[in-house]
Design goal:
2 copies of one chain form a homodimer. Chain A contains 14 helices and 23 strands. Chain A is α+β, with helices and mostly antiparallel strands. In chain A, the strands form 7 sheets. In chain A, strands 3-9-10-16-13-12-11 form a 7-stranded mixed β-sheet, sandwiched between helices. The two termini of chain A are 24 Å apart. In chain A, 42% of the residues are buried. Chains A and B meet through strand 2, helix 2, strand 7, helix 6 and strand 9 of A and strand 2, helix 2, strand 7, helix 6 and strand 9 of B.
C-alpha cells in the first residue's frame, strides 16, 4: 500500500473533503470568504466526535477538571489586561500608490511595494489581529468589543466564580471548547490557518512549586491523547520545546504533526506562571489570590495550559488517513483506477458501520440489521449501485467496516464484514455481529 | 409541595444559577458586559446534554436529516440576499442634548427624551441589529462582515453542496447548532434575550405541494421533543399561531413556554416557501433549483424550518425545575429553612447520580460504587459535611438520585437511594443498583 505524502497530498485532501462534504469553503455560491470553512455532514460528525473525545478525556473522566462555556464577546478590558489589545499584532505597511497593505515580515524589501514596485510606502505600523465589533446602540470606541482571540482568557477571568461554585481546591483545572477569531493576513493550508476556528483549552491552577510536575504530567497526558486515542503513529508527531519564551511563559512546548506542508503545531502546552492571574487581578482591582488551607498560605495560582486547535486535529486526521492504493483495488477486480481511502480511527469515523445489501431484494434483512446496529454506532444504509462502487464510497468517507448481506445470508444467517484498510473479509454470524464489531470499534 | 411561580421566581433562578455555577455574568470581575452570559460547570453540562439530545433527535436518529457546521462570519452578500442588511433593524432616535439613543417603539412620546426631557430629538432612523466587524487588512466598507444573526441562512447557502455530497433527495433536512449574535438594544430576562446565544435550527427542503404536511409533521415532532423528552407538562407549553406573517413566511407558529415573566417563545416553526432559495439564487447568480427525477420537474425547494434557542430551553428547564419546599424539609429533620430543589429531567441533569458515604470511613466502598457508576452516568462523589447538607446541595443542582453508603451497607451489601423530588428512599442491593438506576435514568 503506497502512502501518498508530498506536495499534492493537501490538494487531494481538500478535493476529497469537498467531494464528500467534509469541509468546504464558506459561502461558496458567493465566491467564498477567505479564511472561513464550513463543515458538511461527515465533517460535522468527525469534528463533534473529536471534540467529545477531548471533553470526555479532559473533563468527564476527571474529578479535578471542570467545564466552562464563556461568551465569544466579553468585556474589552479582558483584552487590555491580557495584552492582546496592545501586543497581538503584525507590523504592516501601506503602498501610497496602489493602496495595498502588506505584512512587513513577509516583504523582501519593506521599502518597496511587492505589487506595483512603488517606493511610496508608509512607516510600518501595528495591525491588531483581533476582530473588532460594537456592542450597544452607538458605534464608537466606548462601545468597541472584540471577538475572543483565544478561549483561555475568559477561564482566568471566571476562575473565582467557577472555583467557588464548584467547591474545587487547588490543584484543579477549568476547560472549555469554542470558537476563536483572528484576522490573519494570510490564511493558508486549508483549515490549518483560518480566521475562525475552534479551540479546546484547559487551564490547570496549582501551586508554583508543583507547576513543573504538572507541566510534565499534562505533556504525557496530551501525548497519549494523540497516540493512544487518536492513533497517530509516534513518528508523525514530535515535541518542539520552545527556547524563546513568550512574555507570559516560564516553559512551553508544542506538539507538532507532520502535515504534508511540513511540521505544524496542533497543541501548545504552556507553564504560564502567575502572569495571567496577576494581570487580571491588577486590571480588575479584584483580589484573585487563593488561600491554601493546608499550607496556610495565600498566593496567586500558577497556571499550566494545554491548548489545541480542533480544526487542526481534524485536518491532521484527514491528512494522516488519506491513502491511494492501486494493488488492493485490483484485488477486488477493479483495475480502472486507484482506490482512495480515508483511514480514520474507528472511534471518530463519521460512519462506523455501513450496511449494504448485495441486491435490493435483500433489503429487508439488511434493514433489520441496520436498525439494530444504529442504536450502538454511527451506521449508514446504502443499497444503490454496484457493491464495488458502494465499497469505494465507504472507503472514501473512512468507514472502517462494511457489512454485506448476500443471498447466502438468508441460508446461513451470516454476513460478510469487510475491513476498510486491509480489504480482508470475515464471515460473521448475524447473532455474533454486535460482539464482533464491539471488539473492533474502539 | 409549593411551586414558586411569580415575579420573584426569575430572580431566585438567577441567584441559584450564580451560586451553583450554572450561569453567571460574562467578565463579572470587569463589571460584566450587558447581554452576555457564561455557563459554569453545571450549566455547560446541562446545555451540552440538551444540545446532544436535540442533535440525536433531529439528526442522528433520522435518515433524512444531515448536519452542517458553518462559520459565524460568512460572505456579507449572504445578509444582503437574506434581507438582514436592509431590514433587520429597530427604529432609533437620538437626544441631541444628553446624546443618548432610544428605541422609538419603546418611547411614550417619540419627540421627548425619556432621560433629560429634551425636545431636541433626531429624526428616527433604522439601527441594524447585526454585529459588524472587518475581515482583512483594511477597515472600510469593502471589508465589512457580520456576525450571523441566525444559523439558518448558511444552510440555504450551502444547500447544493450538502445535497450533492450527501446524495440526499427531496424531501430532506439540514440541521445545525451554533452561536448567533444580535445587538439587542435592551437585553433582558436573564438569558432569554441576550446578545450572544445558541440556535438549533433545521431546514427541511421539500416540494411545495407537500410543505403543509411537513409543517404539521414537524410541529408534532417538536411538541413531542418538549413534552416527551424534556418532560415539560403540557400546561406549561402553548402553540401561538401567527396571524401576521413575516415577509418570508407562508405559515408560522411559535412554541411558547410559561416563563415567570410571561409566555415566551422557545421555538419557531415556519413554512418559508421558496423565499430564501429564490433570494440566494438571485443574489448569487447560481441556479439553486432542484430536479425531481420522480416527477420529472425542476423547481426551487420549499423550506419548512424548525428553529429554537438552546439558552431559552435551558432557562425554561431551570425555571420549570425551581421549587421551594418547606414541609418536605422538615421530614428530613431540618426545619431552619426551606429546601430549594431543581427538578430537572434525569436525561439532562448535570449530575445524574451522587454517591455519598455517610461518614468518611465508608469512603472505600462508596468510591468503588462511584467508579462503577461514572462509567454509565454523570456521577459525583461527595464525602464532605453532614449528609443533610449534601442532600441539600444535590437538590439544588438537580441530581435525581443520591446513593448513600452507610454502616449497614458493609453488612447487607445494600445502599439507600434517595429520590430528589419525593425524598422517598429505597434500599437497593449493590448488585442490583445499576439495573435500578438504568430503569429510572431515562
Amino acid at each position: 500500500m503506497s502512502n501518498v505524502r508530498g506536495n499534492d497530498t493537501l490538494a487531494k485532501v481538500v478535493a476529497l473533503c469537498k467531494r464528500r462534504g467534509f469541509v468546504f469553503q464558506s459561502s461558496e455560491i458567493y465566491d467564498g470568504i477567505n479564511g472561513f470553512w464550513d463543515y458538511g455532514p461527515y465533517g460535522v460528525t468527525l469534528r463533534r466526535s473529536v471534540e467529545q473525545l477531548w471533553w470526555k478525556h479532559m473533563v468527564e473522566d476527571r474529578d479535578n477538571v471542570v467545564g466552562l462555556d464563556s461568551t465569544i464577546i466579553c468585556n474589552p478590558r479582558v483584552w487590555k489586561a491580557s495584552g492582546h489589545l496592545d501586543q497581538f499584532s503584525d507590523l504592516m505597511t501601506d503602498c501610497l500608490d496602489c493602496r495595498r497593505r502588506f505584512r512587513v515580515d513577509q516583504m523582501e524589501d519593506p521599502g518597496t511595494c511587492p505589487e506595483c514596485g512603488s517606493k511610496q510606502m508608509t512607516e510600518p505600523r501595528e495591525f491588531n489581529l483581533m476582530m473588532k465589533t460594537f456592542v450597544g446602540p452607538v458605534f464608537d470606541e466606548e462601545h468597541a468589543a472584540y471577538l475572543r482571540a483565544e478561549t483561555c482568557q475568559p477561564i482566568f477571568v471566571d476562575f473565582d466564580q467557577v472555583r467557588i461554585a464548584s467547591r474545587q481546591k487547588l490543584p484543579f483545572g477549568i476547560a472549555q471548547t469554542g470558537k476563536a477569531f483572528r484576522n490573519e493576513i494570510n490564511p493558508r493550508f486549508f483549515t490549518f490557518r483560518s480566521r475562525e476556528f475552534v479551540q479546546m483549552e484547559m487551564e490547570f491552577f496549582c501551586r508554583a512549586d508543583e507547576a513543573m510536575a504538572w507541566y510534565d504530567y499534562w505533556k504525557a497526558e496530551r501525548w497519549s491523547f494523540y497516540r493512544d486515542l487518536l492513533r497517530f503513529p509516534e513518528e508523525t508527531l514530535k515535541i518542539h520545546e520552545h527556547e524563546k519564551l513568550a512574555h507570559y511563559a516560564q516553559a512551553a512546548l508544542d506538539i507538532e504533526y507532520a502535515f504534508p506542508f511540513g511540521w505544524g503545531e496542533i497543541e501548545g502546552i504552556h507553564h504560564r506562571g502567575t502572569w495571567d492571574m496577576g494581570r487580571h487581578g491588577e486590571f480588575s482591582g479584584r483580589d484573585l489570590s487563593y488561600f491554601d488551607q493546608e499550607h496556610n498560605e495565600r498566593f496567586l495560582p500558577t497556571v499550566v495550559e494545554t491548548s489545541c486547535g480542533l480544526d487542526r486535529i481534524c485536518l491532521a486526521l484527514l491528512c494522516r488517513g488519506y491513502r491511494e492504493d492501486m494493488a488492493a483495488t485490483q484485488k477486488e477486480g477493479r483495475d480502472e483506477d486507484v482506490r482512495v481511502l480515508l483511514s480514520l480511527p474507528p472511534l471518530v469515523s463519521p460512519v462506523q458501520v455501513a450496511v449494504l445489501p448485495l441486491v435490493k431484494k435483500l433489503g429487508e434483512t439488511a434493514a433489520g440489521l441496520f436498525r439494530d446496529l444504529r442504536r450502538r454506532w454511527r451506521t449508514e444504509y446504502d443499497e444503490g449501485g454496484s457493491i464495488g462502487k458502494r465499497y469505494r464510497r465507504q472507503d472514501e468517507i473512512g468507514t472502517p467496516f462494511c457489512v454485506t448481506v448476500d443471498y447466502e445470508s438468508l441460508e446461513d444467517r451470516a454476513v460478510t464484514v469487510r475491513h476498510r484498510d486491509s480489504m480482508t473479509q470475515d464471515r460473521v454470524g448475524m447473532d455474533a455481529l454486535v460482539g464482533y464489531l464491539a471488539e473492533r470499534l474502539v
